[in-house]
Amino acid sequence: MTQTTLPPVEKTQPVSAPGGTTSDRAKSERKLGWLLAGPALAVMLLVTAYPIAQAVYDSLFDFRLTDPDNRSFTGLSNYAVILSDWLWWRSLLVTGFITLVTVAVELVLGFALAMVMAKALSTIRPVLRAAILIPYAVITVVSAFAWQFAFDIQTGFVNTWFGWVPGISGDTDWFGGTWTSLLVICLAEIWKTTPFISLLLLAGLAQVPEVLQEAAKVDGASWWQRMRKVTLPNMKAAIMVALLFRTLDAFRVFDSIFIMTGGANATESVSFLAYRQTISRLEIGLGSAVSVLLFLAVVFIAMSFIKGFKVDLSQSRGEG
Amino acid sequence: MPDVSKVGSDRVQTGRAGPFHSRRWRRALSGAAAAGLLSSALAACGSDEGGVPTLTWYTNPDSGGQAEIAARCTEAADGQYAIETAVLPREASQQREQLIRRLAANDASIDIMSLDPPFIPEFAEAGFLAPVPSDVAERVTEDVVESAVEGSTWNDELVAVPFWANTQLLWYRESVVEQAGLDMSQPVTWDQIVEAAQAADVQVGVQGIRAEALTVWFNALIESAGGSIIEENSTDPSEIELGLTSEAGIRAAEVMRMIGTSGTVGPALSTANEDSTATAFEGPNGGFNVNYPFVYPRALSAVEAGTMDASVPEDYGWAIYPRVDADTPAAPPYGGINLGVGAFSQYPELAYEATECITSTENQAYYFVTNGNPASDTAVYDDPEVLEQFPMAPTIRDSLELAAPRPQTPYYSEVSGGIQRVYHPPSSVEPEQTPEAAAELINAVLRKEQLL
Asked: Which regions are flagged for Polar residues bias (chain A) (predicted)?
């Protein structure tokens, strides 16, 4: 990072941290900030903190929805059941795999799309943006059905269209094996959420000062050098925020798996496991424990992004 | 609400000045908002104050037959009650999930429910079903096929009203059995079917998808072999004894493996459900298909729509479900819908009265003819209109008399889920290991020592 340090970046830092003691103006600004954010915070606490607390509480009980009279406190035994079960670890691995693959591909694709949107002629830019955003506007369940129908062995067109590709024939049962199922699930996820990442990256691209690009051009830097030394370092905050949001999102993958395989062929994700224990088995205690573990995993991911990669969420606001 | 008043006051202040004016506006707006909220809340509360009591019937999706029956019974009730229907999700498991969550919250709006039989013990055991009055119980089980009565019973007591009863038949192509020289006037075994299919190079349609359909198939195999998934039942989950590792259980696994690896089940056995196997049966490779009677009207309507040649359904033949062993009668799958009355309903007596109307011979015949759902009332099978539309009706009735319900337990979801997990895909079933593994998993899940 220090190699590519640029004057404007250095400059923004002192600006974002108010220097010296807090003045009256800063105080009143802070007060206004609380007033503005307070109601939202209260609503957030009500709709997120309360259910989380309830789930943590429920996870300590042996509690079946159809048998509430026999509810009993069992301490951490639900967690012991989950953590000693191979199914949990397998689901965690599958979830991790889907997260890693989709986020990595989406980042590259999303960046390319962001570049296209940024560089496109201003006349076609609105149309282009709308076109790129369409998949993101599609409901996940609908997109999952669309992809399932496309790859279906009886009604799908993929086997017919891509019959010339080695390994694909009219008899390829995409949802009959683990890897082929995961491939379609990942494709559907990538198709659907790449626009989100590209939109965040587009905002990042817009932040890169044009003067720096011009200066680099004058210095004789090639396109690739400008990309590596100027564009990317200046977009670091935006990239990290996009990655963080998408990773958290991808880790909770549920809809596509639910529609396409129903958890068959070892494609269960952690969210799917929580669904099956809580909703299908009606084991509220066990299911809550799975949900709490999922929550902890998400918190862990968020913390490691913020601490490990030093992501400053405020930087993505684009001051400077 | 505070948001509304704020928006209002802002708008006024930017438009015209004056604190008095803005306060009045604010008050008026927030008052209006409060009144709006209150009236909508009130509207949600009491709907049938006075007048005719409205019974809500939660139905599974169909071709509109249940809504029509509700209208007919409302008319027949002559102002005593009115039935309105509310449609549940498509999948039986999701119907159960929705109903159970609402009943667990003592939902009084559920008067009548269309229930899939395997879930009835769970509802009964949880106290979600209003007790069936003894006179009603007597009337609604008269001349009703045995399997439907069994499917409405829990702990030797009738807890639901038999409505329509479904069963799977063995569908075959006349041309194929002729070519293979298979005599369909006699009961046939799975071995014979697979051999005939191999000889004629056609497909055998079975449901190998990891879903309820797999349990249905497996249950038919184990019951046909003379065993049961649950040998010793109990309301205490840790005392349920499974019959998966019994001789019949192992035999069922052998047959499943034999069919799965025979090369006659098509390329997508592990995702094959009732619909996809019916589609395959309609195609050029269709030979045999174990499936519900909807296969027939489905083909006829395709002919009517011009998407299928009339010669295809003409080639259809039907017989009783295949046997596992030549000398033991088959135990075909039993399904359908029975009616439960919600324990928290405000009008349980009226609701039971309504179920008697819904399940009348007339209405069952109407439902069979228009929606293709076979009746549980044996009298319907003598109806000339039914016989004309469904020439296989006598076979359906015979099949229903032989049919075996899936395991009746309040923990059905765990048992079925465990079977689906271990016996899927059917081609990988190992008769020496799979039954053992399934029994171990289901027992551990029932003891709440493992995830599902």
From this structure: 13-23
Give me the residues of B, 115-154, that contact A with CB < 8 A.
122, 125-126, 128
What pLDDT, in 10s, does the model give residues B364-392?
Answer: 999 999 888 999 999 999 999 999 989 99
**Partner residue opposite B126 with nearest CB, options A67, A82, A263:** A67
A286 shares a domain with A207? yes
Q: Which residue has the tokens 């564009």?
A: A231
Alpha helices (H) in A162-283, listed in sequence order: 178-207, 210-218, 223-226, 232-234, 236-251, 255-260, 270-275
Q: Which domain holds residue A47?
A: 25-58
- Say what the pLDDT of residue A171 is: 87
Q: A276 and B414: CB-CB below 8 Å?
A: no
Residue B85 pairs in a beta bridge with: B57
- How close is the nearest chain B Cα to the Cα of A158, in Å? 15
Whether residue A288 lies inside any domain: the answer is yes
B271–A286: do the CB atoms touch at under 8 Å? no
* Predicted confidence (pLDDT) per residue in B153-200, tens digit: 999 999 999 999 999 999 999 999 999 889 999 999 999 999 999 999
Q: Is residue A233 part of a domain?
A: yes
State the pLDDT confidence band at A61, using cuts at 50, 70 and 90.
very high
Cβ atoms within 10 A of the Cβ of B123, count? 24
Specify if A289 maps to a domain: yes
CATH class belonging to B167-333+406-446: alpha beta
**Radius of gyration over every alpha carbon of chain B, rounded to an integer in angstroms:** 26
- Give the minimum alpha-carbon distance from A149 to chain B in angstroms, rounded to a whole number: 12
Query: Which of A65, A85, A282 is closest, CB to CB, to B451?
Result: A85
Return the CATH fold of B55-159+336-402: D-Maltodextrin-Binding Protein; domain 2 (3.40.190)
As beta bridge partners, residue B318 has B171
Quote the pLDDT of residue A21.
62
Same domain flag for A36 and A181: no
Domain boundary (A58, A78, A110) is at A58
Q: Does A290 touch chain B (CB under 8 A)?
A: yes
